[in-house]
Amino acid sequence: MWAIMTLKNPVAASQTPEKVAERMASICRFENQNNESNMHWDSTIWQDCEIELMYLRPGDFFFQPPGVLHLVYTPRACVASGGHFYNYDSLHLTEWTRRIQHLQSNAVTNQDPARVKEALNMMMLNFPNNQGKYFYRRALAALCRMVLAENEYIHQQQAKLKFGNKLDQKAEAMAEIVARVCFEISPAPGDERKLTVDALAKILEGDYREPGVAFRLEPETVQTIEKLALKYWEAFSAKKKKTTKKG
Q1: Do both 59 and 122 map to the same domain?
Q2: Per DSSP, which regions of 137-199 are E strands?
Q3: What's the total number of domains in the chain?
Q4: Model confidence over 84-102: pLDDT tens digits?
Protein backbone atom coordinates (compact mmCIF):
# COMPACT_ATOMS: atom_id res chain seq x y z
CA MET A 1 0.00 0.00 0.00
CA TRP A 2 1.73 3.14 -1.26
CA ALA A 3 0.35 6.57 -0.34
CA ILE A 4 1.38 9.83 -2.03
CA MET A 5 0.96 13.05 -0.04
CA THR A 6 0.62 16.49 -1.64
CA LEU A 7 -0.16 19.86 -0.07
CA LYS A 8 -3.67 21.12 -0.86
CA ASN A 9 -2.57 24.74 -1.12
CA PRO A 10 -0.74 25.19 -4.46
CA VAL A 11 0.90 28.39 -3.16
CA ALA A 12 3.03 26.24 -0.86
CA ALA A 13 5.06 25.11 -3.86
CA SER A 14 6.31 28.67 -4.45
CA GLN A 15 7.45 29.38 -0.88
CA THR A 16 11.11 29.61 0.06
CA PRO A 17 12.94 26.28 0.46
CA GLU A 18 13.35 27.05 4.18
CA LYS A 19 9.57 27.32 4.71
CA VAL A 20 8.80 24.29 2.58
CA ALA A 21 11.49 22.25 4.33
CA GLU A 22 10.12 23.19 7.75
CA ARG A 23 6.59 22.24 6.73
CA MET A 24 7.67 18.93 5.22
CA ALA A 25 9.71 18.13 8.33
CA SER A 26 6.62 18.71 10.51
CA ILE A 27 4.58 16.38 8.31
CA CYS A 28 7.26 13.69 8.39
CA ARG A 29 7.64 13.99 12.17
CA PHE A 30 3.85 13.85 12.50
CA GLU A 31 3.80 16.90 14.75
CA ASN A 32 1.98 20.21 14.46
CA GLN A 33 4.23 23.18 15.15
CA ASN A 34 1.18 25.48 15.46
CA ASN A 35 -0.43 23.45 18.19
CA GLU A 36 -0.51 25.62 21.35
CA SER A 37 -0.11 22.58 23.58
CA ASN A 38 3.04 21.58 21.67
CA MET A 39 1.59 18.11 21.32
CA HIS A 40 3.63 15.69 19.25
CA TRP A 41 2.13 12.96 17.07
CA ASP A 42 -0.72 15.25 16.12
CA SER A 43 -2.71 14.04 13.10
CA THR A 44 -4.05 17.56 12.37
CA ILE A 45 -0.74 18.24 10.59
CA TRP A 46 -2.04 16.11 7.73
CA GLN A 47 -5.27 18.05 7.26
CA ASP A 48 -3.73 20.30 4.60
CA CYS A 49 -2.55 17.26 2.59
CA GLU A 50 -4.22 15.25 -0.14
CA ILE A 51 -3.44 11.53 0.15
CA GLU A 52 -3.72 9.20 -2.82
CA LEU A 53 -3.52 5.49 -2.06
CA MET A 54 -2.25 2.87 -4.50
CA TYR A 55 -2.11 -0.91 -4.19
CA LEU A 56 1.00 -2.51 -5.64
CA ARG A 57 0.73 -6.19 -6.44
CA PRO A 58 3.43 -8.82 -7.11
CA GLY A 59 5.39 -7.88 -10.23
CA ASP A 60 4.33 -4.20 -10.22
CA PHE A 61 6.79 -1.37 -10.86
CA PHE A 62 6.16 2.12 -9.53
CA PHE A 63 8.15 5.21 -10.59
CA GLN A 64 8.02 8.16 -8.20
CA PRO A 65 9.37 11.64 -9.00
CA PRO A 66 12.00 13.21 -6.72
CA GLY A 67 10.83 14.97 -3.55
CA VAL A 68 7.47 13.22 -3.15
CA LEU A 69 6.23 12.68 0.41
CA HIS A 70 4.97 9.14 0.72
CA LEU A 71 3.84 6.47 3.16
CA VAL A 72 4.36 2.74 2.74
CA TYR A 73 2.59 -0.12 4.50
CA THR A 74 3.16 -3.77 3.69
CA PRO A 75 0.25 -5.91 4.97
CA ARG A 76 2.15 -9.19 4.65
CA ALA A 77 5.71 -10.46 4.37
CA CYS A 78 7.26 -9.84 0.98
CA VAL A 79 10.51 -9.02 -0.80
CA ALA A 80 10.70 -5.66 -2.58
CA SER A 81 13.58 -3.71 -4.03
CA GLY A 82 13.99 -0.08 -5.01
CA GLY A 83 16.52 2.36 -6.36
CA HIS A 84 16.90 5.78 -7.92
CA PHE A 85 18.22 7.31 -11.12
CA TYR A 86 18.67 10.79 -12.58
CA ASN A 87 16.94 12.10 -15.68
CA TYR A 88 17.74 15.31 -17.58
CA ASP A 89 14.01 16.21 -17.72
CA SER A 90 13.45 16.07 -13.96
CA LEU A 91 16.64 17.59 -12.58
CA HIS A 92 14.71 20.67 -11.40
CA LEU A 93 12.92 18.30 -8.99
CA THR A 94 16.20 16.64 -8.01
CA GLU A 95 17.77 20.05 -7.26
CA TRP A 96 14.77 21.15 -5.16
CA THR A 97 14.73 17.84 -3.28
CA ARG A 98 18.43 18.07 -2.49
CA ARG A 99 17.96 21.62 -1.20
CA ILE A 100 15.17 20.45 1.13
CA GLN A 101 17.33 17.58 2.32
CA HIS A 102 20.22 19.99 2.90
CA LEU A 103 17.96 21.90 5.31
CA GLN A 104 15.98 19.06 6.94
CA SER A 105 17.59 15.74 6.03
CA ASN A 106 17.26 14.50 9.63
CA ALA A 107 13.47 14.58 9.29
CA VAL A 108 12.48 14.18 5.65
CA THR A 109 14.63 11.29 4.39
CA ASN A 110 16.48 8.16 5.41
CA GLN A 111 18.41 8.07 2.14
CA ASP A 112 21.85 9.49 1.40
CA PRO A 113 22.76 8.15 -2.07
CA ALA A 114 26.45 7.64 -2.69
CA ARG A 115 28.47 9.10 -5.56
CA VAL A 116 25.85 11.70 -6.51
CA LYS A 117 28.50 14.25 -7.53
CA GLU A 118 30.13 11.77 -9.92
CA ALA A 119 26.78 10.94 -11.55
CA LEU A 120 25.91 14.62 -12.06
CA ASN A 121 29.43 15.32 -13.34
CA MET A 122 29.04 12.65 -16.02
CA MET A 123 25.62 14.01 -17.03
CA MET A 124 27.14 17.49 -17.33
CA LEU A 125 30.01 16.31 -19.51
CA ASN A 126 27.62 14.25 -21.63
CA PHE A 127 25.30 17.19 -22.30
CA PRO A 128 26.94 18.31 -25.61
CA ASN A 129 26.54 14.76 -26.97
CA ASN A 130 22.77 15.22 -27.08
CA GLN A 131 22.61 17.38 -30.22
CA GLY A 132 19.08 17.66 -31.60
CA LYS A 133 17.39 16.61 -28.36
CA TYR A 134 15.08 18.80 -26.30
CA PHE A 135 15.88 20.03 -22.80
CA TYR A 136 14.02 22.13 -20.24
CA ARG A 137 15.51 25.46 -19.20
CA ARG A 138 15.08 25.16 -15.41
CA ALA A 139 16.04 21.48 -15.37
CA LEU A 140 19.33 22.25 -17.14
CA ALA A 141 19.98 25.25 -14.87
CA ALA A 142 19.47 22.91 -11.91
CA LEU A 143 22.12 20.52 -13.23
CA CYS A 144 24.63 23.36 -13.72
CA ARG A 145 24.01 24.69 -10.22
CA MET A 146 24.30 21.30 -8.51
CA VAL A 147 27.64 20.72 -10.21
CA LEU A 148 28.97 24.19 -9.33
CA ALA A 149 27.66 24.47 -5.75
CA GLU A 150 27.69 20.93 -4.38
CA ASN A 151 28.30 22.11 -0.80
CA GLU A 152 24.84 23.73 -0.80
CA TYR A 153 23.24 20.30 -1.20
CA ILE A 154 24.99 18.14 1.40
CA HIS A 155 22.89 16.64 4.19
CA GLN A 156 22.56 18.17 7.65
CA GLN A 157 25.52 17.79 10.01
CA GLN A 158 27.78 16.56 7.22
CA ALA A 159 31.13 18.25 6.67
CA LYS A 160 31.59 20.33 3.54
CA LEU A 161 32.77 18.23 0.67
CA LYS A 162 36.21 18.77 -0.80
CA PHE A 163 36.62 18.14 -4.49
CA GLY A 164 39.22 19.08 -7.03
CA ASN A 165 39.95 15.95 -9.04
CA LYS A 166 40.05 16.07 -12.81
CA LEU A 167 36.44 14.91 -13.23
CA ASP A 168 35.17 17.64 -10.91
CA GLN A 169 37.24 20.31 -12.65
CA LYS A 170 36.08 19.33 -16.13
CA ALA A 171 32.41 19.08 -15.12
CA GLU A 172 32.50 22.43 -13.33
CA ALA A 173 34.13 24.06 -16.36
CA MET A 174 31.46 22.54 -18.60
CA ALA A 175 28.71 23.82 -16.26
CA GLU A 176 30.09 27.37 -16.51
CA ILE A 177 30.37 27.10 -20.29
CA VAL A 178 26.81 25.77 -20.65
CA ALA A 179 25.53 28.54 -18.35
CA ARG A 180 27.29 31.11 -20.52
CA VAL A 181 26.04 29.70 -23.83
CA CYS A 182 22.54 28.44 -22.99
CA PHE A 183 21.53 31.07 -20.40
CA GLU A 184 23.66 34.01 -21.56
CA ILE A 185 25.31 34.32 -18.15
CA SER A 186 28.55 36.30 -18.55
CA PRO A 187 29.85 37.40 -15.14
CA ALA A 188 32.81 39.73 -14.81
CA PRO A 189 36.28 38.15 -14.56
CA GLY A 190 37.29 37.24 -11.04
CA ASP A 191 33.81 36.43 -9.74
CA GLU A 192 32.74 33.86 -12.33
CA ARG A 193 31.76 31.00 -10.01
CA LYS A 194 29.72 32.92 -7.43
CA LEU A 195 27.92 35.14 -9.94
CA THR A 196 27.13 32.16 -12.17
CA VAL A 197 25.70 30.21 -9.22
CA ASP A 198 23.61 33.23 -8.16
CA ALA A 199 22.33 33.77 -11.72
CA LEU A 200 21.33 30.09 -11.95
CA ALA A 201 19.47 30.44 -8.64
CA LYS A 202 17.44 33.29 -10.17
CA ILE A 203 16.37 30.99 -13.01
CA LEU A 204 15.23 28.40 -10.44
CA GLU A 205 13.00 30.80 -8.49
CA GLY A 206 9.27 30.11 -8.44
CA ASP A 207 7.26 26.90 -8.51
CA TYR A 208 9.78 24.09 -8.12
CA ARG A 209 7.55 21.73 -10.12
CA GLU A 210 7.89 23.69 -13.37
CA PRO A 211 10.71 22.40 -15.64
CA GLY A 212 10.81 25.62 -17.66
CA VAL A 213 10.59 26.29 -21.38
CA ALA A 214 11.71 23.47 -23.68
CA PHE A 215 14.49 24.18 -26.16
CA ARG A 216 16.31 22.13 -28.77
CA LEU A 217 20.06 21.67 -28.51
CA GLU A 218 21.03 23.03 -31.92
CA PRO A 219 24.25 22.09 -33.78
CA GLU A 220 25.48 25.70 -33.57
CA THR A 221 25.09 25.65 -29.77
CA VAL A 222 27.01 22.37 -29.51
CA GLN A 223 29.82 23.78 -31.67
CA THR A 224 30.10 26.88 -29.46
CA ILE A 225 30.18 24.78 -26.29
CA GLU A 226 32.81 22.43 -27.74
CA LYS A 227 34.96 25.35 -28.92
CA LEU A 228 34.93 26.99 -25.48
CA ALA A 229 35.55 23.64 -23.79
CA LEU A 230 38.55 22.99 -26.04
CA LYS A 231 40.01 26.38 -25.09
CA TYR A 232 39.56 25.50 -21.43
CA TRP A 233 41.23 22.08 -21.76
CA GLU A 234 44.18 23.65 -23.62
CA ALA A 235 44.59 26.38 -20.99
CA PHE A 236 44.24 23.83 -18.19
CA SER A 237 46.85 21.51 -19.75
CA ALA A 238 49.27 24.39 -20.31
CA LYS A 239 48.89 25.53 -16.71
CA LYS A 240 49.40 21.99 -15.44
CA LYS A 241 52.58 21.54 -17.52
CA LYS A 242 53.91 24.87 -16.27
CA THR A 243 53.25 23.90 -12.65
CA THR A 244 54.89 20.49 -13.15
CA LYS A 245 57.93 22.06 -14.76
CA LYS A 246 58.38 24.48 -11.84
CA GLY A 247 58.03 21.61 -9.38
Answers
A1: no
A2: none
A3: 2
A4: 889 999 999 999 989 888 8
